[in-house]
Amino acid sequence: MVKTLGKVHSIISNxxxxxxxxxxxxxxxxxxxxxxxxxxxxxxxxxxxxASVQVFESTRGLKPGMNVVFEQHMLEVSxxxxxxxxxxxxLQNDLDKMEGVFLKRGEYTxxxxxxxxxAFEPMAKAGDKVKAADWLGNVKENWLDHKIMVPFxxxxxxxxxxxxxxxxxxxxxxxxxxxxxxxxxxNVTMVQKWPVKxxxxxxxxxxxxxxxxxxxxRVIDTMNPMLxxxxxxxPGPFGTGKTVLQxxxxxxxxxxxxxxxxxxxxxxxxxxxxxxxxxxxxxxxGRSLYERTTIIANTSNMPVAAREASVYTAMTxxxxxxxxxxxxxxxxxxxxxWAQALREMSNRMEELPGQDAFPMDLSAIxxxxxxxxxxxxxxxxxxxxxxxxxxxxxxGGNLKEPVTESTKKVARCFYAxxxxxxxxxxxxxxxxxxxxxxxLEYPEFVDYAAxxxxxxxxxxxxxxxxxxxxxxxxxEQIDILGDDSVPVDxxxxxxxxxxxxxxxLQQDAFDNIDGNTSMERQQLMLNLVLGVVRADxxxxxxxxxxxxxxxxINAFKQMNYSEYKSDKFYQYKAEAExxxxxxxxx
Amino acid sequence: xxxVFQKIYTKITQITKxxxxxxxxxxxxxxxxLVDGRLAQVVKIWGDxxxxxxxxGTEGIPTDAEVTFLGKAPSxxxxxDLCGRFFNAFGDPIDGGPxxxxxxxxxxxxxxxxxxxxxxxxxxxxGIAGIDLNNTLVSGQKIPFxxxxxxxxxxxxxxxxxxAEADRIILGGMxxxxxxxxxxxxxxxxxxxxxxxxxxxxxxxxxxxxxxLVPDMALTAAEYFAVDKNENVLVLLTDMxxxxxxxxxxxxxxxQIPSKxxxxxxxxxxxxxxxxxxxxxxxGGSITIIAVTTLSGGDITHAIPDNTGYxxxxxxxxxxxxxxxxxxxxxxxxxxxxxxxxxxxxxxxDHPQVMNAAVRxxxxxxxxxTKLENGFDLTDYDKRTLDxxxxxxxxxxxxxxxxxxxxxxxxxxxxxxxYFDKAELGIKQEIVDEFGGYQDK
Lengths: 586, 441
Prior knowledge:
The complex is a heterodimer. Chain A has helices spanning about 220-225, 240-250, 265-275, 305-320, 335-350, 360-370, 400-410, 420-425, 445-450, 455-480, 490-505, 520-535, 545-560, 565-585; strands spanning about 5-10, 15-20, 30-35, 35-45, 50-55, 65-75, 75-80, 85-90, 120, 130, 135-140, 145-150, 160-165, 165-170, 175-180, 185-190, 190-195, 230-235, 255-265, 295-300, 325-335, 375, 385-390, 415, 435. By secondary structure, chain A is of the alpha+beta class. Chain A folds into four domains: about 5-75, Elongation Factor Tu (Ef-tu), domain 3, CATH 2.40.30.20; about 120-190, CATH 2.40.50.100; about 220-440, P-loop containing nucleotide triphosphate hydrolases (Rossmann fold, 3-Layer(aba) Sandwich), CATH 3.40.50.300; about 455-585, Bovine Mitochondrial F1-atpase, Atp Synthase Beta Chain, Chain D, domain 3 (Bovine Mitochondrial F1-ATPase, ATP Synthase Beta Chain, Chain D, domain3, Orthogonal Bundle). In chain A, about 30% of the residues lie in helices and about 25% in strands. Chain B contains twelve helices and 21 strands. The relative contact order of chain B is 0.12. Residues about 1-5 of chain B have low confidence and may be disordered.
């Protein structure tokens, strides 16, 4: 097939209009030749012989008449062993392979290693009938089992002709030969390509999420649980701890693979991940956290068009690992920057704008993207999942803006960060009452919780939530009426809510023990706290309430800081129980 | 190149307030041109029609004006000769001195590869406790002052610049009043530091669109000193609100659809491109950016401060404390995101705890004040916090303070001892024992 050629006709910033000399397709990739540099671009609109392309690089110096070559494929990523522990840009270029301190325009690097040998173990045998995403073999990527699969692009059923013997192979060596229905043989290597904008659908079934994705963060796991394969989003004004929260999720969540897309955010935050993650020990494997992490960095000063690509690249890598039966946690910070990139382009194309000048189809784009997450049953009956949590940076902290509202329609969990909580250093600053997890209402999860956490779990969580609501109302009344003009009961209600806040909701992300709480431990703490909430106490005057509850809070907090089930832990538990016994009505 | 240089066009087909269009060939995107002797830049190429943004405005330009294309993007000649000099937005001297000889570099160059950046790690001391104690600055950081137009932000920034031990200071002045320009000039002159300073200034007298070149000029000079000379460079950008206003003017003239607060939809990317030039290079050089974003009535939800806040690593909020009659660095609304990298490590180890305790007590004072205003009785503790807050504000938060970080910590302990019992501080016992100076009761 001959590649279509074209010539640059018009240039408006990074939107270039190309006069084409043959067929082109929507979302096709092309390269614009500017002297020795080749600038990658994507077709986003075709009108007669003219294709509008968004260029992933600066267009400085570009002139009409320059040559364009269309590549006959969409934006693709390479999938194979060696993706973990990598730092990619939005187009999957390996940033570490680039020379020099500054990014060079038109420099594209190989995302994988062509020379590296991988120890391959066959899983399929000659004569097996296979289809796309079936497992042919296994290699160890760091400590994870990386499955070598029938390429996702293969349609229909194939027969395995041969599979390579166990041994060391490079990603480009043939590790299997398959035969299609017509008898044509094809060679399969460890690497395959997939267009990022298309979801990988090589699975049998996508059920509703039903089991929790533990994050170790109490305000999430206990109050607003995330499920494996679920979706959530974190909107918050700047300075409310979005980034710290995302990093905590990456560190402690119960996932096999973490993919972080730094989309249009600060470069120094990515540097923090580069610096800290290799040092952090993964609590599950005892190895460096970096070994199961991939970072897609398209920071705010990198080309805007590649921002959009970065989230799709991240999702595609996530779907790839999901097909191996792994639990993938995908974090994107921030999806607002991606939406802004869409807005810039739509504006240059002079499309009719929607609200706040965002493109009209913003909502559809966001919901299609979130829909790619999920838990799936693979061809072999095993499960794999992509859990997606995105952050949103609402302009002016106002949640009534198009990106937040569009995301709210699709994401099942909403973690609202509150400026007030951040100001009073109540971290994580997730406002439990403004937040929600729709999964609490899923019968699948209710059943799961009753069987695996405790019979009364959902009721307990709701009871704690109700207490918080009453606490908030009472606090408002005390503010209006004054401390001494309300009954003592009001103060008790207020402090029972504060107890939940301080012991369950607040958590020190920087503390090794408190930063990560197991589900069993969360259940125990919630029960202890609810014990206090349900009890009746006696006080002479309101002035006794605050110091008394502060003592209980302190004892419980020390428990949070102590090794689970250690002597210290039980010592503080006993201390708390003794304090409670002082004033409890029998 | 030479051929492009010589071709003269004389048929302008369209003129707006900021742009003019003509038919021309072989012109590159972003290229510079001269229109009737005025500098202009290619902003749009539509077939053979070229749209030029004329920096100084199009007043008086005739349709038969001479247009020549220069075959290059805006650039700056860099060398050590830049030091001690004042330039306009185009990089031409405005101090009567000779033109600069040096290597010509395009401004607005490429970004640093994120994996090549180093984590910022060097504390920048300013002597101002509202900054050093509560919102410590780190080299490679980018942070703006958020201030209402009536606050002395340029003076504070100039103080910070002079006290910070930077090898080089680059001033990018956008829409500076002539008075402020002369203020900076005299201050640098009198401090005898002129040879460390390079200034790019667009005054209010110059056309607003010219401002758009100032940050890139300043940062190109900064990259020369930080990369080629391995220096620690401090870049001052004032006032970024006026820069953003100029962006809005241009996008409006180009018929772009405005987003929030009439700002262009690309405001975030435009600002990020500038601020993200702040970096710690692996070779030891660094670029730190301190900027000014003026607010309208303290409103930080406006698109300019809002987008800035998402990009920068914190903000320094100036506010007049009416009780002591001084301008202070507001401890609640100010934030330095990078302070955790240095406090208690490059400063005394009680720094984080003292900082938090003082701010918490100051917050208690503000609650007490609310109580007072609402007519409730004050407890003894409330009264003590109010007294503490007054002295804390005067001795530490006020911008006229100039002491070392250790002195700031000692001053804070002094106030703690004066007004509070050890147990009321909420500071770890061992820290109180080591630094608190409490006589055991």
